Amino acid sequence: MKMKRPSCFLKGTLKRVTLFAVVVCFLYILKLSFGPEECDMKKMHYVDPERVKRAQKYAELIQQGECRPSFVKKEMNRLFAEKYRANIFPFVREDIYGYEDVFKYKPPFGFHKNSHKLQNLLKLLPEHDLPENLKSKHCKRCVVVGSGGILHGLELGHVLNDFDIVIRLNNAPVQGYTDHVGNKTTIRMTYPEGAPLSENEYNPQSLFVVVLFKSVDFNWLQAVVKNEALPLWVRLFFWKQVAEKIPVTPKQFRILNPIIIKETALDILQYPEPRSKFWGWDKNVPTIGVTAVVLATHLCDEVSLAGFGYDLRQPNTPLHYYDNLCMAAMEGQTMHNVTTETKFLQKLIKEGIVKDLSGGIQCEFCKKPS
């Protein structure tokens, strides 16, 4: 019996699929070739020595001030009432299956349709809380260190190192920038594409907190925890190169409770219900930075920020402290609503719930004494 040849319909479908794949690859290469405009670092804004002195003095006063137990949780409860859950557990634990709302949404807002993958991961992770030396501390001070270019030149590193918990975001480096950002890292919080590629940026004593944005992120985390090679088919689902070796032990890994993202996005920021598109989301996902701030309110008693603030009115200012991307690069992104986030952070600062050490959101130390 002779085998039937593929029908014309099948041939046409294969051609269309092939053409679509070629177009997607072409657009991706085009995007890499014409990426965000770079800033001329020689024209980087001059940092007034007087501003440096004021910033350092202000940061030192905040760090040395009274630590008030449960202060930030009480204030968040006061400001947001039922929108904020003070007793939520920050990192995913084995008893998470008792919380139905965790499985209502898909990542990053929940673990819908990823229950089995999560179960496999939790078997590999022996710890799900802060280390005992921090957990038992009577009153904890947190500082969330953002990646903003505003940090460059303020030389706040020595003050940031004195906080009990220093949270760093994504691939923001410490090496080469310690004067500005310090060298203490208690928590590195990121998603697969944001994890540092250099092994020198990992402190074996710090926690590595992963935000799971999509189904293949579970595969990535399992591979790095087990120190296994990432399958080629998994790599194809990431929009940039991901780290394949994270030099920390399994007991240092944590998974962010997705309820914190859901709480931040849907309850506090009042974003619309999650509606994923063919690629990415429609400005309803909070940045890692704002998510880390909300996480800090669950972990600590006092919370400060440094390196936060997107000033879209100054498109030619440096976006980050460690590269030469311009602020204008934020205009093209479609996932985050930085205007809404800025208003939220301004509210926290005006209400005295958190402190802005670098003055990028609201500058308290910029006010001249009367």
UniProtKB/TrEMBL annotation:
The entry's keywords: Disulfide bond, Glycoprotein, Glycosyltransferase, Golgi apparatus, Lipid metabolism, Membrane, Signal-anchor, Transferase, Transmembrane, Transmembrane helix
Keyword check for Lipid metabolism: yes
Membrane topology designation: Single-pass type II membrane protein
The organism's place on the tree of life at top rank: Eukaryota
GO biological process: lipid metabolic process
Compartmental location: Golgi apparatus membrane
Gene Ontology CC annotations of this record: Golgi membrane
Catalytic activity: ganglioside GA2 (d18:1(4E)/18:0) + CMP-N-acetyl-beta-neuraminate = ganglioside GM2 (d18:1(4E)/18:0) + CMP + H(+); a beta-D-Gal-(1->4)-beta-D-Glc-(1<->1)-Cer(d18:1(4E)) + CMP-N-acetyl-beta-neuraminate = a ganglioside GM3 (d18:1(4E)) + CMP + H(+); ganglioside GA1 (d18:1(4E)/18:0) + CMP-N-acetyl-beta-neuraminate = ganglioside GM1 (d18:1(4E)/18:0) + CMP + H(+); a beta-D-Gal-(1<->1')-ceramide + CMP-N-acetyl-beta-neuraminate = N-acetyl-alpha-neuraminosyl-(2->3)-beta-D-galactosyl-(1<->1')-ceramide + CMP + H(+)
Predominant subcellular localization, coarse grouping: Golgi
InterPro entries registered for this protein in UniProt: Glyco_trans_29 (IPR001675), Glycosyltransferase_29 (IPR051142), GT29-like_sf (IPR038578), Sialyl_trans (IPR012163)
GO molecular function: lactosylceramide alpha-2,3-sialyltransferase activity
EC number: 2.4.3.9
Record's keyword annotation contains Disulfide bond: yes
Disulfide-bonded cysteines: C142-C300
UniProt xrefs under PANTHER family: LACTOSYLCERAMIDE ALPHA-2,3-SIALYLTRANSFERASE, SIALYLTRANSFERASE
Entry similarity comment: Belongs to the glycosyltransferase 29 family.
Function: Transfers the sialyl group (N-acetyl-alpha-neuraminyl or NeuAc) from CMP-NeuAc to the non-reducing terminal galactose (Gal) of glycosphingolipids forming gangliosides (important molecules involved in the regulation of multiple cellular processes, including cell proliferation and differentiation, apoptosis, embryogenesis, development, and oncogenesis).
Protein name: Lactosylceramide alpha-2,3-sialyltransferase
Gene (UniProt): ST3GAL5
